[in-house]
Amino acid sequence: MNTNRFSEPMSRRNFLTLGTLGVAGLSLGDVMRLRASERQTAAPDTSVIFIWLAGGPPHMDMYDMKPDAPEEYRGQFRPIRTNVPGMDVCELMPLHAQCADKYTLIRSITHNFSDHGGGSKRLMTGRVPRTPTETINDAPAVCTVVSRMREHIDVGLPNCISGVDGGRDNPNTYAQGAAYLGPRYLPFQLAGDPSRADFQLRNVSLDSSMAQRLDDRLRLQRGLDSLRRDLDSSGMMGAMDRYDQQALSLMTSPQARTAFDLSREPVGVRDRYGRHAWGQRALLGRRLVEAGCSFVTMVMENPHIQGTFYNWDTHAVNYDNFNDMRLRLPRYDQAITALVEDLHARSLTDKVMLVVTGEFGRSPRISQSNGPNGMRYGREHWPRSMSVLMCGGAMQHGQVVGSTNALGEHPHTRSLTPNDMWATVYRHLGIDTEHTFPDPTGRPLTILPFGSPIRELI
């Protein structure tokens, strides 16, 4: 995946360096003056938690197992029964088996982009990208569309937040770019491992002297802004204003202080999610939507376990897929099922929709490669079939939608695209997919060019 820095957006730290700042001290009046022109209203009572499995999870080793397929397809794991008759999952995910009645599996989503870049753009935007590689969007990511459509909402938090590992906080890393909507609608990036004792929302603690210095810098900044804005034709200055406002809002907002403070959670709840980045990121996602955030992306890429690959891209030339899954899936099983069960326990399944997916599945046929410790077995990129877990959104749970053929190669029944998934999400959020935005040429483009809400879910 492309992790290079790029010009969209300019780092907030380039203009107002907040890395040394941190949540008390600055007056709310400063923030309110910065946002005086923005209309504030109550947030619609719907939101999305989007779990991104960067690299492409292997559907045939997780949610769409084929125990009767030839050995070179079925892999090394066996399926286990769940509490829903006819729904099986991988033996490495026993917690999934215990709560299958609380989520739905879609096994028949398909598209045509086999590169990480093209696949990420296809999934993140709901549009067919112009180029099959790289992760710089030519159409806005869904999270940025939500940000644009809910920009009038102010709950003391950014409407769209993305939780990522440190060093992965460039929106283009995961095709989260805003394209022609402009950089002001990019998600607020929350980088770091929330399971660490020293984790904190960067920039949320000000002593009195630091607050005074920041106050002076804000006055200077506002003066410079008024001079520069007339010269700015790219919209970048407005975007920077928005980022600064978001950062300052996080410093002063009691909602933010509460939402980001995982220590407020009972020890047993934190333990149930797992004291690791994935578990605490899932828990943080739940807290953020409870606080009113509209769209929270939480990236589960690197499990930070010795002996695993850094993401889900388990080609045989990269790593042994089956060794990786033996270490990775228990951690994933814990985090996802804790979130699913928590949404139900807290009566959030009407308000919150959970979507768990990567950019594609992995090849049904197992590949091989000689490694330093012997033969390695892997799976290649495979967009023709992939599995998605969904929960909440007032949907029907405890079912499987669609199927693949006997070898897991392509949809056999109920062929769906990422757009059908997004049409379901937009419906939940109350966003009209026929709404248009002008592209760079001025041509009106609908939010979603095709796709229908998945009828089995609604």
Treating each run of at least 4 consecutive H or I residues as one helix, how many helices? Answer: 12
Question: Helix and strand string, N-terminal first?
Answer: HEHEEHEHHEEHHHHHEHEEEEEEEEEHEE
Strand order of the largest sheet: 6-5-7-1-8-13-4-14
Domains counted in the coordinates: how many?
Answer: 1
Which percent band covers the strand fraction?
Answer: 15-25%
**Helix content, binned percent:** 25-40%
Instruction: Calculate the mean pLDDT score and round it.
Output: 86
CATH topology descriptor: Alkaline Phosphatase, subunit A
Largest sheet: 8 strands, mixed
Give the termini distance in whole angstroms. Answer: 35 Å
| CATH class category | Alpha Beta
Written overview of the protein:
The chain is an alpha/beta fold and 458 residues long. The chain has a single domain, classed as Alkaline Phosphatase, subunit A (3-Layer(aba) Sandwich). The chain has twelve helices and 18 strands. It has an eight-stranded mixed sheet, sandwiched between helices. The protein has a two-stranded antiparallel ribbon with strand order 2-3. A hairpin with a 5-residue loop joins strand 17 and strand 18. Helix 7 packs across helix 8 and helix 10 packs parallel to helix 11.
